[in-house]
Design goal:
Order of helices and strands: HHHHHHHEEHHHH
Strand content: under 5%
Strand order of the largest sheet: 1-2
Shape: globular
Number of helices: 11
Length: 294
């Protein structure tokens, strides 16, 4: 009875209605179902399924006879060696633009769209604590983004295997990696990309708390990453480029080496997590002080 009296006293002091529990508001499952039913979510997953099929058709038709240049490995030359090779080629082709757009879309649209629709103030009046609302939307955006990335990889493995065989992984330098080890390395690559792409995702999330226009949040994050990608090509900037959010974008190709060189991988993970933490903190700080009136 003492605990019950304490709860009643707290409710009376805060003016909360009896039975109100902040932890029961905006449950993650509810938010995920809401987001998954949206057209943009279904469209993204449809593109994730369609992209590998389009690339298979392009490779089989000989649409890409010249290999793309890369300072680490050349994945285009061996793209048709097996399903695993094709999957690596798909990830390589999608990293710089396609996946950047996907993460920016899921994170940048989450808060700004609610504000644009005018439903944000009603959500806060439920009442849902502001920090809980941001946390749930951040987690939902992350889950959907990673799910889209995994969908792309899984479809590429299956479709690539059907088209080019379920053989071993062949590296451009002539190294053969068994299927078991190849799948483990592919899982590591997907994990690295999920962490690295958090940079653009959390940047879009921060912008989503600043503006009521989802397109501005998504476009602003994508534009910023593209600017850094362009600056990364300016050799005169020297070691300054190592601190850009786009640095170590393709460090995951080190997982194709034997033995694996983990130096750039470790730096890429740590740097991405630091950027993601900073952008998330900025989003929390701004939203906690924001006057939501529309």
């Amino acid at each position: 009875m003492t605990d019950e009296r304490a709860k009643v006293a707290i409710l009376a002091a805060t003016g909360a209605v009896a039975g109100y529990r902040p932890e029961r508001t905006l449950r993650l499952g509810v938010e995920l179902r809401r987001q998954f039913k949206r057209r943009r979510t279904l469209g993204v997953f449809a593109l994730m399924v369609g992209l590998p099929l389009v690339l298979i058709a392009a490779l089989q038709l000989g649409a890409s006879e010249e290999a793309a240049e890369n300072d680490r490995v050349n994945l285009v030359d061996v793209a048709t060696a097996s399903g695993l090779n094709f999957t690596l080629f798909v990830l390589f082709a999608a990293t710089s633009f396609f996946l950047v757009v996907v993460f920016a879309l899921f994170f940048g649209d989450t808060v700004a769209s609610e504000a644009q629709w005018g439903s944000l103030r009603y959500a806060l009046a439920t009442p849902i604590p502001r920090m809980r609302l941001l946390r749930q939307k951040w987690i939902a955006a992350f889950v959907l983004s990673v799910a889209a990335l995994v969908t792309l990889a899984v479809v590429a493995v299956v479709a690539g295997g059907i088209a080019f065989g379920f053989g071993d992984l062949q590296t451009p330098i002539g190294l053969t990696i068994g299927q078991g080890s190849g799948m483990a390395r592919l899982a590591g690559i997907v994990g690295y990309l999920a962490v690295h792409l958090l940079v653009v995702g959390t940047l879009a999330f921060w912008l989503s708390t600043v503006t009521d226009a989802p397109l501005a949040a998504v476009g602003g994050a994508i534009f910023t990453m593209f600017v850094f990608a362009i600056l990364d090509q300016v050799e005169q900037l020297g070691s300054l480029r190592d601190w850009f959010p786009t640095a170590e974008e393709f460090a995951w190709t080190d997982l194709l080496q034997t033995p694996i060189d983990s130096g750039d991988l470790f730096r890429g993970v740590v740097q991405s997590l630091v950027y993601a933490a900073v952008f998330t903190a900025l989003a929390l700080r701004h939203f906690s002080r924001r006057d939501v009136t529309a």
